[in-house]
Amino acid sequence: MATCRALIRQWPQWPRHLRRPTSVGVLSRLSPPRIQTQSTVRRAYSSISAAELKFGQPLHETHPHLLEPGELTPGITALEYAQRRSRLANKLPKNAVAVLAAAEVTYRASGIFHEYRQDSNFFYLTGFNEPNALAIIVNDGSGDNHLFHLYAREKDPKAELWDGARSGTQAAMDVFNADESGDIERISNILPKVLAGATEIYTDIPAFNPGRSSLHRYLYGPSGASEKLRKLIDIRKVKPLRPILNEMRAFKSEEEVVQLRRVGQAAGRAFTAAMRQNFTKEKDLTSFLEYNFKVNGCDGSAFVPVVAGGSNALSIHYTKNDDTLKDGDMVLVDGGGEMGTYISDITRTWPVNGKFSDPQRDLYTAVLNVHRTCVSLCRESAKLSLDGLHGIAENGLKDQLQQIGFDVSGDALRTLFPHHLGHYIGLDVHDCAGYSRNHDLKAGQCITIEPGIYVPDDERWPAKFRGIGIRIEDSVCVGDDNPIVLTTEAVKEVGTRGMSIHVLS
């Protein structure tokens, strides 16, 4: 893939001025919209001064410290979002439509909402980061062109006084480049007319799913809108959208890889900064790590971090993070930052006091050797899948463990290495849910490599290793002939006394 070769040449920074920016609100269509209703408005290509208005998310005109000209979201241009929609439309039959809903606001208690996180597929195609919105992408039969409908909340000064700015329907066209928009509150009148002529409907919205369980219907009941929709839509036309989007999202564009590199760099520096400190509590290390994600430019954490001292590391997803860190133990830290909705995923394990004991060093070196081998094979020319790499990791760990005195006969490795070697990453920590790990890796795919060994307190294992859990994880972009490690700033090499943190400034 030429993109990956270019990225390797330009690493670690891809100059932003080399991208192809496009100004907001100026993308043209090859044919005008053909669907008109009283509840929708067509693009008129009117010019609005974004700097003078309030929107539901940052734009370059309002937040030039966060976005470059032409970027609709950090690192991703409006042009790229339009190209994604066009690619999706070309994968659909003529006059078929894709329907996607924005994520809803969720609440931890009455009136107390969680931080909003947009549905990843919706975000991937629109860049629109508000709730209560619906996107429809139509293959209008015009080749590389398509029709894009974006229905959103209308501007409402009273509501915005409490909940913050909304972008509104005019911005849906002028900023987010929709051909048609309308007030989402009128969607029950709009949607049937839009879908009436569709040959097929590709969606993952539950209202279209006839397979919802009787228990679900009993507990939650059908919503009025869902039942009305069922009556209007021929369910035989409905097909799942996720498999198509998985195939698209599994391969990252140049802009996406650069954004993943940025967030990997920021998170990696936070990890190395944490290794330089002395902590006596898991909670303190957690707070330091999450703070430094933000200081280094991340929006926040990609997930609740694992900060596991001593034998707590034997729990793969330990997230209580409320224990003490003891001198002589190791601490396993699994975390990552998020930036513009793209994530990083890193795990490092190091001695709490900065110095490895001999058993700790031996076990750490065994995992590190396997990690190096697997990362080196993250290239298209190796013709390996994630499952294939997992098999190589298992064999490598068996060999390394035998050398330091482990009996790895029988099902030993299922106990010592109970998880998969890696997963896809991108907008989600476990990206492209359902996408097979049996496909040969191709240039432009981004994955994690995370071998680990977790030794229970059991007489089956050598006493000096019991209670130790070690995992080493990097985010990696598959190249043509060389891997691109996205999180290289997180130190993992072993020095003469401890982790070699002195090698980075």
UniProtKB/TrEMBL annotation:
Mind telling me which SMART domains this protein's record contains? Answer: AMP_N
Q: At the top level of its lineage, which domain of life is listed?
A: Eukaryota
Q: What's the catalysed reaction?
A: Release of any N-terminal amino acid, including proline, that is linked to proline, even from a dipeptide or tripeptide
Root EC class: hydrolase
Keyword Protease applies: yes
Q: Where would I find the Aminopeptidase P N-terminal domain in this sequence? A: 76-212
Annotated SUPFAM superfamilies? Creatinase/aminopeptidase (SSF55920), Creatinase/prolidase N-terminal domain (SSF53092)
CDD domains tied to this protein: Prolidase
- List the cofactors: Mn(2+)
Q: Tell me, in a sentence or two, what this protein's role is.
A: Catalyzes the removal of a penultimate prolyl residue from the N-termini of peptides.
Q: Which family does it belong to?
A: Belongs to the peptidase M24B family.
Name assigned to this protein: Xaa-Pro aminopeptidase
What is the originating organism of this protein? Aspergillus cavernicola
